[in-house]
Amino acid sequence: MGYSYQDWKTRAESISLRGQAFVDGKFVDAISGKTFDSINPANGEILTSVAECDAADIDLAVSAGRRAFEDGRWSRMAPGDRKEILLKLAALIRENLEEMALLDSLDMGKLVSDAVTIDAPGSAHFFQWYAEAIDKVYDEVAPTGPGDLALISRVPLGVVGAVTPWNFPLDMATWKAAAALAAGNSVVLKPAEQSPLSALRLAELAAEAGLPDGVLNVVPGFGATAGQALGLHMDVDCLTFTGSTGIGKRFMQYSGQSNLKQVWPETGGKSPNLVFADCEDLEAAADMAAFGIFFNQGEVCSANSRLYVERSIKDSFVEKLIERANATQPGDPLDPKSKMGAIVDEKQTAGIMRFVESGKSTANLVAGGEQVTVNGKGCFVQPTIFDDVKHGDPLARDEIFGPVLAVIPFDSEQEAVEMANDSIYGLAASVWTDNLSRACRVSDKLHVGTVSVNTVDALSAMTPFGGMKQSGFGRDLSLHSLEKYTALKTTWIKYKP
């Protein structure tokens, strides 16, 4: 966007921050009157006070969503009209691109340069993509005999609860809301308490675009109160969630304890990256291996945090990674020259550092490994690389959710595949090779939702994103994601032929 460090700081000083909940078309305080502080992790300063919603506020939002669904103001609106409103919302996001990017950067510490070139434009793109799909997805007619007409329709479920994480606040809200709204549902969105600000602004833009009152409600609050209330609510038809595996399991339990609502969890990851000696462009492989773990401070569910390298090239490849890590040091998220931003909060920073300190006694620390400050403040961790990690080490088993890479050598294709699959997670994987047969063979054997060959973390609006095993079974993106927000309904008509 061409903004300087000073430009972004000036914009940050003057930005308007919404902290109230958005329910039934208007901003409101929490019924209890409680608030919590939204804190900038780059400097520890309070950004604003945010409504601390609980079960009473969830009830209010779900009731608003139900009324909007039942009276058909959105669910029975002509598909072309729904399309135009969501297209208008996509346009409004683009018109307010810098503001949306700045909200996420201030709220959770990501680089504003990434937010304004990747996250915010991506959110606009996904709303546009689903808007365009609304009048292009057809129902079915079964091949019955004369005198029978069997219609198979995809119908919206009703009220969709969406619980989103803090690492990509705007994008994750969009991945859930765009598809659910396109299908004709009402949505009650609970953003992560660490990063609620862009979701609240998104709701305001949606209203400006013409989305009817009650169709999109945003209720910030804590997982133990607002999140639990949404999961247990008897009038929520579907719960979509991105976050940790433990909380995903909890939402599954909430479903069984309440109304058997559909639950679509997209949960943890410990994605393997397999680099074979027959990869011709090892510079590109090193670039993307570093990107795959250090982008967004490693706070990515599909981050390539396990690096398996063929032993014959391992030492030279690690040297390339060390060079890249040393050139990717943390800086002020508002400075376009910074290569990595802040960790979301002190709790997450402390958790990352526990893994790092423990790893120093079990593996070879070759880069980083320190918590640092920027301008004397903030939650920052250096890009960190451990070499010669044992496959059973927590560095290689547990989701750290930070800029910490575990390097593990292998001697054969079979060994690499076995170690890659030996994980409770199955979200994503990458494979680097110039042998087409190996690329296809290894990809087929990896038990993950997405395999990226000669790249990392490939995704698109056109392809589904989600995992296997304890990475959950929810799928975002693509037309397939509409399936989780709709039900198949058969209408069988007898007539005189």
Using the 3D structure, state the CATH architecture of the largest domain. 3-Layer(aba) Sandwich
Number of helices: 15
| Uncertain segments | none
Silhouette: globular
Q: Class of the largest domain in CATH?
A: Alpha Beta
Gist of the model:
The chain is α/β, with parallel strands linked by helices and 497 residues long.
Write the layout of secondary structure elements.
Blueprint: H1 5-14, E1 21-23, E2 26-28, E3 35-39, E4 46-51, H2 55-70, H3 79-95, H4 97-108, H5 112-133, E5 140-141, E6 148-156, E7 159-163, H6 169-182, E8 186-190, H7 197-209, E9 216-218, H8 223-232, E10 238-242, H9 245-257, E11 262-266, E12 272-275, H10 282-294, E13 306-310, H11 311-326, H12 346-359, E14 364-367, E15 371-374, E16 377-381, E17 384-387, H13 394-397, E18 404-410, H14 413-421, E19 425-426, E20 428-432, H15 436-445, E21 450-453, E22 468-469, E23 486-494
Parallel strand pairs: 7-8, 7-10, 8-9, 10-11, 12-13, 12-20, 13-18, 17-18, 20-21
Antiparallel strand pairs: 1-2, 3-4, 5-6, 6-23, 14-17, 15-16, 19-22
Helix pairs in contact: 2-8, 3-5, 3-7, 4-5, 4-7, 5-6, 10-11
Which key phrases capture this entry?
single chain, 497 residues, alpha/beta, Aldehyde Dehydrogenase, Chain A, domain 1, Aldehyde Dehydrogenase, Chain A, domain 2, 2 domains, seven-stranded mixed beta sheet, five-stranded parallel beta sheet, 23 strands
Structural description of this entry:
It is a single chain. This protein has 497 residues and is α/β, with parallel strands linked by helices. The chain folds into two domains: 5-267 and 472-490, 3-Layer(aba) Sandwich (Aldehyde Dehydrogenase, Chain A, domain 1); 272-469, 3-Layer(aba) Sandwich (Aldehyde Dehydrogenase, Chain A, domain 2). It is built from 15 helices and 23 strands. The protein has helices at 5-14, 55-70, 79-95, 97-108, 112-133, 169-182, 197-209, 223-232, 245-257, 282-294, 311-326, 346-359, 394-397, 413-421, 436-445; strands at 21-23, 26-28, 35-39, 46-51, 140-141, 148-156, 159-163, 186-190, 216-218, 238-242, 262-266, 272-275, 306-310, 364-367, 371-374, 377-381, 384-387, 404-410, 425-426, 428-432, 450-453, 468-469, 486-494. It has a seven-stranded mixed β-sheet, with helices on both faces. 54% of the residues are buried. The mean pLDDT is 98.
